[in-house]
Amino acid sequence: MRVRIEDVAKAAGVSIKTVSRVLNDEPNVTERTRAKVQAAVAELHYRPLPSARILAGRRSYLIAMPFDNPSNNYLMEVEMGILDACRTQHYHLMLAPVRHGGADLVAEIESLTIQLQVDGLVLTPPITDEPEVLARLKALNVPYAGISAREQNRGIGVVLDERGAVRAMMAHLISLGHRRIAHIVGHPDHGASGWRLDGYCEALERAGMPYDPDLVVQGEFSYESGHAAALRLLAMPQRPTAIFAANDDMAAGAICAVSEYGLSVPGDVSVCGFDDTPIARHIHPSLTTVRQPMRDMGRLAALELLSEIRTPGSGRIIDVPYALQLRRSTGPVVG
Questions:
Q1: Looking only at Cα atoms, what is the longest distance across the chain?
Q2: CB 279 within 8 A of CB 252
Q3: Which of 269, 289, 292 is nearest to 281 (CA)?
Q4: For 109-145, how does the pLDDT look when each residue is reduced to its tens digit (9 = 90+)?
């Protein structure tokens, strides 16, 4: 027979309401009582029915992640982090592909929110910077957490000092003797693209190096766009000695382009990226990149969202650290 909440209450010597409070991670429960209930839950292998929890708390215990991002590696890492948080809080995650830039984006997300009765949303770039979406969610009184949102002084979610991270990567390239450093810019709709371009420009200025617009080529955060951009750079009469791509997928495309040109990485051209997705360790040569803790960012954003759902006003902006991952794709200028 299925273990019921009444059985847990009897085993712990508390009321059904107290058991419900512990299961929903609500305040106003002593640590001693919480421990007794949790011990009874573990001993009886109790698993609450989702329908019962919804009726008890008027929640769906479901959060959604609408997305439209060309980097599957990035999305996978963020998704795994959100799932980590959901497991600890007995929540479920709904992934929802949407069409950023489409006329019906707001309607898509509104329909998702209302029909599934989600308790909240985790937004990833570029949707996290879409003002009409944010305004509609606020009008619906649905909490959301943003990852790498352009507006960092309001709302809840997770951010990283992307300008500082790029300055550190550029300092690494400059220390190796590189002076013609190209940049493949990310998708123009992503806030991160602007921050990374700013960091590139700031690093040049600090090093007393001129900004050359011919060395800055637009990409879209995809492997294909990085490959195409690198081919343009390599065709220049005076090609760059280093390429900094705004994410790892584009950097991988650039490495392929260098090889197709009959050149070597890093012997002829150093290449580096941003994110430290699995592709950075799996390609040859292994990719020098900025480690953005994407899984942690997904987990922390979801935890702040769940905190906001339980206690409105408690959600925060979390600043996470970056780290340079120096691998074999960068080296000193030769000749």
A1: 81
A2: yes
A3: 289
A4: 888 888 888 999 999 988 888 888 988 888 888 999 9
Q: What gap in Å lies between CA 293 and CA 147, rounded to an integer?
A: 12
* Omega before residue 97 within 30° of 0, cis: no
* Cα(51)–Cα(60) distance, integer angstroms: 8
Tokens of 67: 């997305």
Closest CA to 18 of 1, 2, 35, 3: 35
Specify the 3-state DSSP secondary structure of 181.
strand
Element (H, E) at 122: strand 120-123
Q: What proportions of the chain, in percent to the nearest 5, are helix, strand and coil? A: 45, 15, 35
Structure confidence by residue, pLDDT tens digits, 146-203: 998 877 556 799 999 999 999 999 999 999 999 999 999 998 888 889 999 999 999 9
Helix 31-44 to helix 5-12 angle (10° resolution) is: 130
pTM: 0.77
The DSSP code sequence of 52-83 is HHHHHHT---EEEEEE--S-HHHHHHHHHHHH
Q: What distances in angstroms separate CA 49 from CA 20, 55, 255, 300, one per listed residue?
A: 12, 10, 51, 26
| Residue from 182, 332, 189 nearest 267 by CA | 332
User: Edge-to-edge strand order for the sheet containing 120-123?
Assistant: 92-97, 62-67, 120-123, 144-147, 157-160, 317-320
176/245 Cα distance (integer angstroms): 17
